[in-house]
């Protein structure tokens, strides 16, 4: 089956620094990738949709200058948390549908646990 | 507003008991429906999906779900749970294949052996 690889799986950073999370589709191409955030014991909330070759679309309330998204190729999207603060600590998950298939689900990465200290 | 509601926050069952987790959605137009499972420390795994056709959908690990359009529901069922089914279960919906999902808040299932 289709695989989405997310890296790193976990990261600890100091407050004020930036962290980059990568999301790769390993065996398919994705013109669109989705970034979600999951707080402990809560559901996944869509943060933004990254589009290959164009600007990302952010959900209401998500700061685009803080959560920088780049979708430079059909297999890679990156989320950079800039000037991270403890309240940014969370579980970030990406997903991507295979653009070559219709009526298919999006495939999820394993997630990145970010802890800002 | 588009939303997914999962009625049960935490369900505790003994092994071999039957399971039904409720999911209702509010979404205009055609919907695609999904159930995902998240085992402790692991990533989301698709249990089953409904796009069209037979409203009774069979998934992996013995799970099934029934889409009842008139009730806007997509409840998850399993006739006999196992200890290994202990996990978080999420119902999700989108209006078009390949678009972002709206998730319910999740249901924690704890199965005692």
What features would you describe in this structure?
The complex is a heterodimer of chains A (117) and B (113). Chain A is globular, with a radius of gyration of 14 Å. Chain A contains no helices and 11 strands. Chain A is mainly beta and 117 residues long. In chain A, the strands form 2 sheets. In chain A, strands 2, 4, 5, 6, 9, 10 and 11 form a 7-stranded mixed sheet that branches. The termini of chain A are far apart. Chain B is an all-beta fold and 113 residues long. In chain B, the strands form 3 sheets. In chain B, strands 2, 5, 6, 10, 11 and 12 form a 6-stranded mixed sheet that branches. A 4-stranded antiparallel sheet of chain B has the order 3-9-8-7, with no helix packed on it. Chain B is globular and about 40 Å long. The mean pLDDT of chain B is 94. Chains A and B meet through strand 5 of A and strand 5, strand 6 and strand 11 of B.
Can you count the helices of chain A? 0
Biggest pleated-sheet summary of chain B: 6 strands, mixed
Give the N-to-C terminal Cα separation of chain B: 41 Å
**Average of the residue pLDDT scores of chain B:** 94
Low-confidence sequence ranges of chain A: none
Instruction: Count every helix of chain B, treating DSSP H or I runs of 4 or more residues as helices.
Output: 0
DSSP helix fraction of chain A? under 10%
- Give the CA-CA distance, first to last residue of chain A: 37 Å
Shape of chain B: globular
Largest interface, counted by CB within 8 Å of the partner chain's CB = A-B, 21 and 20 residues
Beta-strand share of residues of chain A: over 45%
Please write the string of helix (H) and strand (E) elements of chain B.
EEEEEEEEEEEE
Overall morphology of chain A: globular
Helix content of chain B: under 10%
Low-confidence stretches of chain B: none
Oligomerization category of the chains in this entry: heterodimer
By secondary-structure content and strand pairing, the structural class of chain B works out as mainly beta
Rg of chain A, Å, rounded = 14 Å
Strand content of chain B: over 45%
Quantity of strands of chain B, as a count: 12
């Amino acid at each position: 089956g289709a695989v989405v690889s997310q890296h790193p799986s976990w990261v600890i950073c100091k407050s004020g620094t930036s962290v980059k999370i990568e999301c790769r589709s390993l065996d398919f191409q994705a013109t669109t990738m989705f970034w979600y955030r999951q707080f402990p014991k809560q559901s996944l909330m869509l943060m933004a949709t990254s589009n290959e070759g164009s600007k990302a679309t952010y959900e209401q309330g998500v700061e685009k200058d803080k959560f920088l998204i780049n979708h430079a190729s059909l297999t890679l999207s990156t989320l950079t948390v800039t000037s991270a603060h403890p309240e940014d600590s969370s579980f970030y998950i990406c997903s991507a549908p295979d653009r070559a298939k219709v009526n298919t689900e999006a495939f999820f990465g394993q997630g990145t646990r970010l802890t800002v200290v | 507003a588009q939303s997914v509601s999962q009625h049960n926050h935490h369900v505790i069952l003994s092994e071999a008991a039957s399971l039904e987790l409720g999911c209702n959605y509010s979404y205009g137009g055609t919907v695609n429906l999904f159930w995902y499972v998240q085992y402790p420390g692991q990533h989301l795994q698709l249990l089953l999906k409904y796009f069209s056709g037979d409203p009774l959908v069979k998934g992996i690990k013995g799970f099934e779900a029934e889409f009842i359009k008139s009730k806007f529901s997509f409840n998850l069922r399993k006739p006999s749970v196992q200890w290994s089914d202990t996990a978080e279960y999420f119902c999700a919906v989108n209006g078009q294949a390949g678009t972002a999902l709206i998730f319910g808040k999740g249901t924690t299932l704890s199965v005692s052996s």
